[in-house]
Amino acid sequence: MKAVVLNGSNRDENPLNIWENIIVEKLENRGWEVETVELRNIKLSTCIGCFGCWIKTPGQCILKDNGVKICKAVARSDLLVLLTPVTFGGYSFELKKMVDRLIPNLLPLFTKINGEIHHKTRYEKNPKLLVIGYHPQYDEESERIFKELVHRNAINMDSPANHAEVVTGDINDVKGVAMLRKIKVIS
Amino acid sequence: MSESTKVLLLMGSPKGEKSVSNNIVSYILEKFHENGVKAEKIVIVKQVRTDDALNKLVSKAIDSDILILVSPLYVDSIPSITIKVLEEFYKLTKNSLRKKQKFMAIFNCGFPEPHHNDLAMDMCKKFASDSGLEWAGGVTIGMGPSLDGRSLEKFRMARNLCNGLDIAVEALMKGESVPREAMLIASKPLMPLSIVKFVMCNFGRFLWGNQMDKSVKKKMYDRPYES
């Protein structure tokens, strides 16, 4: 089983980096093959909205940088883990940069899901989605938006299962780390 | 509205000026200009390439009295470059005493149902409340790509959108928030949803195929990363 962990932390000192280690350890102990990417440290352009990945080189982004490798790894994975500071209820710039670049894994064509129009998936099998957000203090509205966003991303990515969690507290907050340990990684 | 009131439109499409968001911005700018208001536009994608340009953009946004974000929806949310601007704005303004500043957002998506934009709108509201801005209202638009290539008033299907935007601009110029009625009118689906959904689901291959070279059409369903 393969997992891809995308860390969308905006800075080096961040609880997400501690939690990334815990998640990787947890997955590896269960026999998963894990690939982690610190998005802020790699060359990654933002999506330019050209739809080249649909109408010029189907399934592949025309921007030849790390986004292509990550997209490939995600397409071949069983679990996609996203880590991000919760930004106005959504993902950080660093994480969203890559999430926007995942659209080559969809088809341009449409289908109806629960009566709504969505894109069809390109691949038969897509990874499950686990998203962990960090917010310094508890914020009800941020958490509501965040969980709804993960749910809608899972619909659009055709993820067979998804889980979202918002963790609060200081960087080395023992409680926060303990809470994360309890999160049941989708198995 | 006094002559010194500064109106700034942030155009958030990564596609730049050849975009539906830019069409909407142009329409709103014209409405302000017709009323003698000096509204300005910033194309975000041109201003996020260097830290210096980004700082200038954010300073200008902080300095405005009315800030209007017009953006496409990317993967259920705000495009990354626009998130970057909002993050920087928040970083520079948090914990500081702010002048009264209004913030309005307009989102468009490729799906026919305007409500796909609702979460992006919620994020903008959250950004406004976290950054001490007064939320002035929002408009959500479905079927965005059908408004591409021509000015907005030339599309008959955009008449509700234009009417709603006219009321919104009028209210903002009076120093008011956008009336709920204007938001509802502007956010009305451009065409009957049942027809559009039928066409998109059944003729999608034809609609997209028209944009592809013959050789690429055969590869539409390719799975280059299949293991």
Question: Could you please describe the fold and organization of this structure?
Answer:
The complex is a heterodimer of chains A (187) and B (227). By secondary structure, chain A is an alpha/beta fold. Chain A has a single domain (2-182), classed as Flavodoxin domain (Rossmann fold, 3-Layer(aba) Sandwich). Chain A contains six helices and seven strands, in the order βαβααβαβββαβα. Chain A has helices spanning 15-29, 52-55, 66-75, 93-100, 140-156, 174-182; strands at 2-7, 33-38, 79-85, 106-113, 116-121, 128-135, 162-168. A five-stranded parallel beta sheet of chain A has the order 2-1-3-6-7, sandwiched between helices. In chain A, strand 6 (128-135), helix 5 (140-156) and strand 7 (162-168) form a beta-alpha-beta unit. Chain B is an alpha/beta fold and 227 residues long. Chain B has two domains: 7-191, Rossmann fold (3-Layer(aba) Sandwich); 192-227, no CATH class. Chain B is built from eight helices and five strands; from the N terminus they run βαβαβαβαβαααα. Chain B has a five-stranded parallel beta sheet, sandwiched between helices. The model of chain B has no long low-confidence stretch (mean pLDDT 94). The interface between A and B is large, with 51 and 48 residues.
